[in-house]
């Protein structure tokens, strides 16, 4: 399968750059290697320094699309202060930025979203992960499945492109549970959905559990990419897990109404993303994995 092309996130001619506004994450999801890597600590740059870096990239290189790479940017007071810095510097209408946030933060800090949109935030990705709270609890995720629909609707209301990520291949997964996941995502209806196979990265609690219980059937690290299935579930073989990933994408993007709406959307990011995906033949590439 072709690698995810980050250039599709920036509109034509804009270029893009990465800005690291913080390191680490205060949350401890069992499948995530990042909080382990940073020893469970979260360290942030000041709003002024974040804005300084964004302004420097724009002024010196003419780059107008900025990806804030934080594992969890957070949408509270610090973000509001970053927005004030960008607006006061007069660059908020020239730069566009993307970030990752939690669904509960989107709901809790929704009053900040209009200011974020004014300051150039057009795109937010949220890890909704699953449709079932018991699995979210097992992942130590700390969110509720019921937050998902509201968080995506709030983003759309504020004209912020909504991207959701979902997890397939949980140890308890079956054909039936993954059909429920597909129904759930179609109901939540983010602008785009990215499905990933649960992957036990070394150093994570998930890896330790998988290794201890002999779940791992693939020791080729190149396949630990959230696209290839490296372990079965209690009800599905690795091949079936792989096929279910394709079925999730086909269910979401196979909707003619969604595809036409995406290609013709007034939102430039949604329009560009759907046109890019159509041109790359991503569904066919996924089907070729099983």
Describe the structure.
The chain is an alpha/beta fold. It has a single domain, classed as TIM Barrel (Alpha-Beta Barrel), CATH 3.20.20. The chain has 13 helices and 8 strands. The protein has helices spanning 34-37, 47-61, 77-88, 103-108, 113-118, 133-138, 147-157, 175-188, 205-212, 238-253, 256-263, 268-280, 282-287, and strands at residues 16-19, 22-23, 43-44, 65-68, 96-101, 121-129, 161-168, 192-197. The strands form 2 sheets. The chain has a 6-stranded parallel β-sheet with strand order 1-4-5-6-7-8. The chain has a two-stranded antiparallel ribbon with strand order 2-3. Helix 2 (47-61) runs parallel beside helix 3, helix 8 (175-188) packs parallel to helix 10 (238-253) and helix 11 packs across helix 12. The radius of gyration is 19 Å and the shape is globular. 38% of the residues are buried. Mean pLDDT is 91; it is low at 1-7.
In angstroms, what separates the terminal alpha carbons? 11 Å
C-alpha geometry: globular
* Biggest beta-sheet profile: 6 strands, parallel
**Largest sheet, order of strands side by side?**
1-4-5-6-7-8
- Content-based structural category: alpha/beta
- Overall CATH architecture: Alpha-Beta Barrel
Strand % is 5-15%
pLDDT averaged over residues: 91
Jot down its keywords:
290 residues; alpha/beta; TIM Barrel; two-stranded antiparallel sheet; 13 helices; 8 strands; globular; disordered N terminus
């Amino acid at each position: 399968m072709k690698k995810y092309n980050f250039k599709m996130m920036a509109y034509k001619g804009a270029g893009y750059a990465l800005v690291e506004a913080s390191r680490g994450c205060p949350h401890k999801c069992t499948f995530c290697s990042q909080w382990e890597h940073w020893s469970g600590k979260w360290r942030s740059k000041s709003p002024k320094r974040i804005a300084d870096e964004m302004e420097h990239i724009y002024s010196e290189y003419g780059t107008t699309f900025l990806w804030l790479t934080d594992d969890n940017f957070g949408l509270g007071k610090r973000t509001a202060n970053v927005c004030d810095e960008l607006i006061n510097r007069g660059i908020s209408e020239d730069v566009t930025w993307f970030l990752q946030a939690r669904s509960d933060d989107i709901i809790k800090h929704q009053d900040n979203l209009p200011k974020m949109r004014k300051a150039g935030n057009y795109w937010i990705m949220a890890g909704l992960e699953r449709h079932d709270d018991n699995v979210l609890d097992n992942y130590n995720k700390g969110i509720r499945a019921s937050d998902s629909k509201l968080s995506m609707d709030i983003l759309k209301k504020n004209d912020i492109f909504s991207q959701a990520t979902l997890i397939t291949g949980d140890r308890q997964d079956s054909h039936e549970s993954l059909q429920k996941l597909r129904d759930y995502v179609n109901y939540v209806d983010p602008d785009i959905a990215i499905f990933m196979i649960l992957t036990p990265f070394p150093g994570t609690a998930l890896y330790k559990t998988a290794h201890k219980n002999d779940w791992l059937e693939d020791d080729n690290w190149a396949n630990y990419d959230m696209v290839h299935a490296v372990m079965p579930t209690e009800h599905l073989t690795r091949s079936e897990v792989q096929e279910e990933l394709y079925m999730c994408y086909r269910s979401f993007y196979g909707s003619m109404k969604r595809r036409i709406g995406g290609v013709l959307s007034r939102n430039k990011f949604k329009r560009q993303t759907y046109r890019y995906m159509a041109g790359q033949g991503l569904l066919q590439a996924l089907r070729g994995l099983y």
